[in-house]
Amino acid sequence: MACGLALPLPLSAVTSQSFQVSATITPGCLIVGGGSNYGALAYGSYSALSTGTVTAALTGGVTLQCTPGVALSMSVDGGLYNSAGRNLQLNSGSARVAYQLFRDAAFSQSLGVSQSVSVTYSDANNISLPIYGRVVLPGNQPGGTYSDTLQVQLSW
Hints:
Layout (H helix, E strand, L loop, with lengths): L28 E4 L18 E7 L5 E4 L5 E5 L10 E4 L5 E7 L14 E3 L12 E7 L7 E2 L4 E4 L1
Antiparallel strand pairs: 1-3, 2-8, 4-7, 4-10, 5-6, 5-9, 6-8
């Protein structure tokens, strides 16, 4: 007597196949170093009777790295003591000294309060914010330290 054991036929398996791989790289910028401090404009120390114009450039703080070709822009608010313009205020009083910001070292391109301006760069891995300050010392201010705090907004 023959037992009829039927074995299934082997299935043919697919041994190679293809699939798609893709990624989307979004252009943007990275803030490097400095934490939340974008730098400082340090005008220096002068006699309370000093007059004349004093300038400073933003130093220290952060640098930026951007995808090459990204259109980077910045705006700077009016600071803590903005009344009819930016002002430095005496830390231990209410005396103020007006100052202006510029976006070029020649002090020819004013940086208005909350004005959005383009930041040009030649090295996408080492971008510094182009902020320059100028103050005219009035020669009649109380002695002490004058300061202000500004907020910078970056967009790309």
